[in-house]
Structure prediction request, 460 residues.
Amino acid sequence: MTDPRLAELIRLIPALKLSVEAGDLEHHGRDWTRRWTPAPLAVAWPASIDEVQGVVRWASAHGVGIVPSGGRTGLSGGAVAAQGELVLSLDRMNRVLGFDPIDRTLTVEPGIALEAVQNAAREHALLYPVNFAARGSCQIGGNIATNAGGIRVIRYGNTRQWVAGLKVVTGTGELLDLNRGLVKNASGYDLRHLVIGSEGTLGIVVEATLTLTSPPPPSQVMLLAVPAMDALMKVFAEARHRLALEAFEFFTERALHHVLAHGAQRPFAEDHPFYVVTEFDAGDEKAEAEALDFFEFCLGEGWVTDGVIASSEAQAASLWRLREGITESLAPHKPYKNDVSVRISAVPAFMEEMHALLSAEYPAFDVVWFGHIGDGNLHINVLKPAELDNGVFVEQCEHVTSLLVETLARHGGSISAEHGIGLVKKPWLGSVRSEAEIALMRGIKAVWDPNGIMNPGKLL
Prediction:
């Protein structure tokens, strides 16, 4: 270590795993955006809360920025280290620390993968219900930092609903123990909820106590072909009225095209403009009959033109792959991503305006969109033509994003539904938050992180 600051860090924390190898710097200095060139000072892998505190105190003393790093599956540049920051990877802090059968809580370290949390809950015949396609690689600390949502928000809400307590190291190295798993705690500001969704700009989550719940009854998965955009919300309204929904997701024919090219199986003989994959309770014959009635009603109304109900777990997984495999299938095309939300009631009008805007502004680009239509969250992916310079591509997309922000504002929506602001969406934070709100956010950060070392440049 030729940098004297890093030599001092090793002297202060002899057991700390630290690397300046080029491969480590590149791998840990970026997230899925791939837009910025990684340039971290080093990568540190603390193995304990004490080591995290030591690293933060060292960074504060030397004015070195810290980028907390989990699975780095984010899509907003929130885990990018491109300005000589120290990447603080939580990969080694990945244990289950305890299970309380009375409180039905699971206490874990932040580097544990979401799928491992789900498996640990299942071992106790319980459920951690937050779920999305990156479950095998994303980490619970990152989920908390972005208040991750996913495919079952209709029934279970976002990550916020399932965090009973947090331990957090602030920008001064102080350890906070927030809420301690209490169900009721009317003792002033709930700082736990301030940390959730803060994108690592206030502190580093070093321990989380998660609430578990009972598993749902047996479910059924149905894939529907929908002929027109205005039918999507009609199908959703009918499904919510007739079925106990767990998930309701949609995607376009272009999305299906890319997933099929990536190895998925074609569900229908013909192409259709839109598709819906929905999961719902089907624990008895009555529920199954109601699902069939729902399908036949939608078919009769012309809202649906074809459909299939999974007859096995393998087929259910195959149907879900059509939706969950979209992001992975698009990755080789270096997509520019928008992650937006509006109130559920505003979805039809917004989608009409959005579709018209995208068609007019991207006549030669492949635009793929899909989303959690049941909670008002749409994902827009613009694929980069192979021959187009990346800088020119991003500039064109950012121009269209500015127009999209204006459309969102008319519908009271948000430029970031579940991926955070990071670096990508920072120019448009003012479209969602007032000047007074942003001033308060800056003031809060100054208290938690007076030297400005926590994930600097992100969000604010």
Q: What stands out?
A: The two ends are 32 Å apart (CA to CA).
